[in-house]
């Protein structure tokens, strides 16, 4: 087991290097970099507007003191070759130093930590609700296989899966937060302006009230995957010989389901946990947080991409990639915890 964990940890290094390298190379060719952003702000123009010509080229630095441009390039570290900047970045990341934001004058770690409560709250609610709803629903569908309940829930889950979370979020905002239909839930944000002055119970309710729509938009598309995975795993276990033997000995169906089938059926369910974790905390946070104006890590990364704040972009990518890799490792290790028959070592240790 420990040898397997060691190998997986070593394999994370080239994976992380590959992600950072590809992203760094792409950034070298993206127009309108940080220097151009600063020059456009100094001139009161936009790199996508007055400072751009009809061919899409940027001319915002025309008439600007070259010494000022060189000073900005030096401040951002662009006065050295890309290879030097790449090696410098990897050296800092090896010490878990994510650097400083170009425009927010704070360390990238401080920015990420300040935004984590929103992302963690949204991701935790999404993950818990997904499994609390999908696993019992999948079990019910397996025990009622072929019935009207099974067909109806399958149709509903497939319809929900076909709608992207971002599109569903827009629909929910239009129906339940706008002026056209009902104005039941807030349009966005993570709390009212006077949130910090409210009593504890009201603060909790205020947070939950603001999370209803974003969590619903995040959960709906994830339910189908976990529900069908649970259903198929239970159906497969229901036909096993040990189930037939237990039933022949007079063991009740409920005891067979909860004492025997559940543990074996959890193995494929645990397989989908890392993907659900990554989707809840990483993939879905960017779009949902941006749509509902939630000031989380996803919104931070989106603003950094638009503003060409490269240290923040690479720092968030570094953290999310590390979290995703460890989540996948945790999913693999869950095999051995759920089923003692599974071993990762060739000699059974």
Automatic annotation (TrEMBL):
The chain crosses the membrane at residues 9-30, 116-139, 151-176, 208-230, 265-292, 312-331. Keywords: Cell membrane, Membrane, Transmembrane, Transmembrane helix, Transport. Pfam families: BPD_transp_1 (PF00528). Residues 116-331 form the ABC transmembrane type-1 domain. It is a multi-pass membrane protein. GO terms for biological process: microcin transport; transmembrane transport. InterPro entries: MetI-like (IPR000515), MetI-like_sf (IPR035906). One of its GO terms (cellular component) is plasma membrane. It is found in: Cell membrane. PANTHER family: INNER MEMBRANE ABC TRANSPORTER, INNER MEMBRANE ABC TRANSPORTER PERMEASE PROTEIN YEJB. Belongs to the binding-protein-dependent transport system permease family. This is Microcin C transport system permease protein. It comes from Paraburkholderia eburnea. The lineage of its organism: Bacteria, Pseudomonadati, Pseudomonadota, Betaproteobacteria, Burkholderiales.
């Amino acid at each position: 087991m420990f040898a397997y964990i060691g190998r997986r940890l070593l394999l994370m290094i080239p994976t992380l290097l590959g992600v950072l390298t590809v992203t760094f190379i792409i950034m070298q060719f993206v127009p309108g970099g940080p220097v151009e952003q600063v020059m456009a702000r100094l001139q009161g123009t936009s790199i996508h507007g007055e400072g751009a010509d009809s061919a899409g080229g940027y001319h915002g630095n025309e008439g600007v003191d070259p010494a000022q441009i060189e000073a900005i390039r030096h401040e951002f570290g662009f006065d050295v070759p890309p290879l030097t900047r790449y090696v410098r970045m990897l050296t800092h990341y090896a010490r878990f130093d994510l650097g400083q934001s170009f425009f927010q004058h704070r360390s990238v770690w401080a920015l990420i930590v300040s935004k984590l409560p929103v992302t963690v709250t949204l991701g935790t609610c999404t993950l818990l609700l997904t499994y609390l709803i999908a696993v019992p629903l999948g079990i019910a569908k397996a025990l009622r296989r072929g019935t009207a309940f099974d067909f109806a829930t399958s149709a509903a889950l497939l319809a929900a899966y076909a709608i992207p979370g971002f599109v569903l979020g827009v629909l929910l905002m239009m129906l339940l937060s706008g002026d056209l239909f009902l104005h039941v839930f807030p349009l966005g944000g993570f709390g009212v302006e006077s949130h910090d002055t409210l009593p504890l119970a009201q603060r909790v309710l205020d947070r939950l009230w603001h999370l209803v729509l974003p969590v619903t938009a995040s959960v709906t598309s994830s339910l189908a995957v976990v529900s069908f995975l649970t259903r198929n795993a239970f159906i497969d276990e229901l036909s096993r010989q040990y189930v037939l033997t237990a039933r022949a000995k007079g063991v009740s169906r409920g005891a067979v389901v909860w004492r025997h089938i559940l543990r074996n059926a959890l193995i494929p369910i645990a397989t989908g946990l890392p993907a659900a974790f990554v989707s809840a905390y990483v993939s879905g946070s960017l779009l949902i947080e941006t749509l509902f104006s939630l000031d989380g890590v996803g919104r931070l990364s989106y603003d950094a991409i638009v503003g060409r704040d490269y240290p923040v972009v690479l720092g968030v990518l570094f953290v999310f990639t590390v979290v995703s890799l460890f989540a996948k490792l945790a999913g693999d290790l869950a095999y051995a915890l759920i089923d003692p028959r599974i071993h990762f070592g060739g000699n059974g240790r």
